[in-house]
Amino acid sequence: MPELPEVETMVRGIKTEITGRCILEVELCHCTRRPIQISPSPANFRRLQKERVVRRVSRLAKRIVIELDGDDFVVIEPRMTGLMLVSDPPTVDHRRVCWHLKPKRGRVSSFEFWDRRGLGTVRLLDAAAMLELRQKLGPDALTMTAADWKKQLSRTARPIKVAMLEQKLVAGIGNLYASEILHKAGVSPKRSAARVTGPMWERIADATHHILNEAIRYEGSTLSDGTYRNALNKDGGYQNEHRVYQKADQPCPTCDKGTIKRIVQTQRATFYCSKCQR
Ligand SMILES: [Zn+2]
């Protein structure tokens, strides 16, 4: 958390406000908690962004990419608890970086990165470093066809759910949506990726589009810890639509015969129905 739908929601939330705007000053907020990773050095990070114009805001897997004029990129990875905001933050204590913008009538005067646990990273990359980062990642989950899925994952013998979290194979999916997608696709999370059949890859590709687009429409999932918020510091709504995630011992919403089980795969919880996921 946040995964593709939450990061896409953050991008959409800040994009209209900050595209075309000029950065006046970057403030590294005073924070007594575990510091986030910033690169290059804080002084250079601040200096290099002064007077630069935001050309474009986009998403790269689970990262927010702010493209500046002159071909540099601010890449923000929220990891566990990071948020991009154009409004007051949930707490003042966990504000990390604030970008002050040249004033424009009727528009926000700043945007910021907030991170409770401090595992997030904020980096300024040149075009070559940006290209290198793109090349490390697999195709974006939202654009993948069944053929792409097969090409990327069918050579690994690991369980399909574990392989789905590998960002160099498929980019954007995390622990929550992996369980949701496999349940909708009717594929067992324990099945070896090498043994997923052609029709199963079709169902996985379809379920991925369906689940991720629906979660974007609901502006992501705010779990019981309440951490994830959209750019206006409001809850997402997709947590009310989850089929299996954190629903152990509840009846399966698809088949009525099964009960949702919780298992652990590579130290992460997986939720599934053993009756309708094969
Ligand atoms: Zn079921």
From TrEMBL:
CDD domains: EcFpg-like_N. Its EC number is 3.2.2.23, 4.2.99.18. InterPro entries: FPG_cat, FPG_Glyclase, FPG_N, H2TH_FPG, Ribosomal_uS13-like_H2TH, Znf_DNA_glyclase/AP_lyase. Residues 243-278 form the FPG-type domain. GO terms for biological process: base-excision repair. Its cofactor is Zn(2+). Keywords: DNA damage, DNA repair, DNA-binding, Glycosidase, Hydrolase, Lyase, Metal-binding, Multifunctional enzyme, Zinc, Zinc-finger. SMART domains: Fapy_DNA_glyco (SM00898), H2TH (SM01232). It catalyses: Hydrolysis of DNA containing ring-opened 7-methylguanine residues, releasing 2,6-diamino-4-hydroxy-5-(N-methyl)formamidopyrimidine; 2'-deoxyribonucleotide-(2'-deoxyribose 5'-phosphate)-2'-deoxyribonucleotide-DNA = a 3'-end 2'-deoxyribonucleotide-(2,3-dehydro-2,3-deoxyribose 5'-phosphate)-DNA + a 5'-end 5'-phospho-2'-deoxyribonucleoside-DNA + H(+). Residues 2-120 form the Formamidopyrimidine-DNA glycosylase catalytic domain. Pfam families: Fapy_DNA_glyco (PF01149), H2TH (PF06831). GO terms for molecular function: 8-oxo-7,8-dihydroguanine DNA N-glycosylase activity; class I DNA-(apurinic or apyrimidinic site) endonuclease activity; damaged DNA binding; zinc ion binding. Monomer. Belongs to the FPG family. This is Formamidopyrimidine-DNA glycosylase. The lineage of its organism: Bacteria, Pseudomonadati, Planctomycetota, Planctomycetia, Planctomycetales. The gene is mutM_2.
